[in-house]
Write a structure and sequence with these properties.
mainly alpha; about 10% strand; two-stranded parallel sheet; 4 helices; about 100 residues
Length: about 100
Amino acid sequence: MAADFDVDRVRAAAEAEALRRLRDLVPHPSQIPGTVSTAVEEGQPHREVLRKAADVNADLIVMGVHGRGAVDLIVFGSTTHHVIREARCPVLIVRKA
């Protein structure tokens, strides 16, 4: 039974589903100016966001954030804070309701 498990196939299916869900969140291109790039990557989130932004020469990074307490942010940091500090383009932060 274990021989039937294909890690690459499972990973590809999970990536395709994540990309579909991500694209469902982005408005139709006719509703927004410019070009929107969506991607699903593996790795440390802030490093992958920054790498992708550099790869596509992004003009803007848009990120949604969850409200976390100050102590949480001081002790653990956050993906958003890493991106803001290291980005080479503006970062627009949208607080999730």
